[in-house]
């Protein structure tokens, strides 16, 4: 059974920054977002390939196919939730009155 981390762990804002992040050279928000979208796309492609292999060669490895499908679904759900939260934050900022 493969267990891969789809998203990087969230850093505690109370902890001091080290290395590249401390100097401001760490990955930016946009880079992290692009990486998350890329990882989700890879999971979707792996799931699609597993389904095609299962359809062409029969149900020899249905367990691995189902795991790939679940990983892809979880990755997509997380990305959609992230989008929803970003939209909520944007709308909240737009409602602010200065």
UniProtKB/TrEMBL annotation:
<keyword id="KW-0969">Cilium</keyword>
<keyword id="KW-0975">Bacterial flagellum</keyword>
<dbReference type="GO" id="GO:0003774">
    <property type="term" value="F:cytoskeletal motor activity"/>
</dbReference>
<feature type="region of interest" description="Disordered">
    <location>
        <begin position="1"/>
        <end position="25"/>
    </location>
</feature>
<comment type="similarity">
    <text>Belongs to the FliE family.</text>
</comment>
<dbReference type="GO" id="GO:0071973">
    <property type="term" value="P:bacterial-type flagellum-dependent cell motility"/>
</dbReference>
<dbReference type="GO" id="GO:0009425">
    <property type="term" value="C:bacterial-type flagellum basal body"/>
</dbReference>
<keyword id="KW-0282">Flagellum</keyword>
<keyword id="KW-0966">Cell projection</keyword>
<dbReference type="InterPro" id="IPR001624">
    <property type="entry name" value="FliE"/>
</dbReference>
<dbReference type="Pfam" id="PF02049">
    <property type="entry name" value="FliE"/>
</dbReference>
<feature type="compositionally biased region" description="Polar residues">
    <location>
        <begin position="1"/>
        <end position="11"/>
    </location>
</feature>
<protein>
    <recommendedName>
        <fullName>Flagellar hook-basal body complex protein FliE</fullName>
    </recommendedName>
</protein>
<dbReference type="GO" id="GO:0005198">
    <property type="term" value="F:structural molecule activity"/>
</dbReference>
């Amino acid at each position: 059974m493969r267990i891969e981390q789809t998203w990087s762990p969230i850093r505690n804002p109370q902890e001091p920054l080290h290395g590249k992040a401390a100097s401001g050279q760490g990955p930016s928000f946009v880079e992290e977002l692009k990486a998350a979208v890329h990882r989700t796309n890879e999971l979707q492609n792996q799931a699609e390939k597993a389904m095609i292999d299962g359809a062409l060669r029969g149900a020899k490895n249905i367990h691995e196919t189902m795991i790939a499908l679940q990983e892809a679904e979880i990755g997509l759900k997380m990305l959609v939730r992230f989008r929803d939260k970003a939209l909520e934050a944007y709308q909240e900022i737009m409602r602010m009155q200065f």
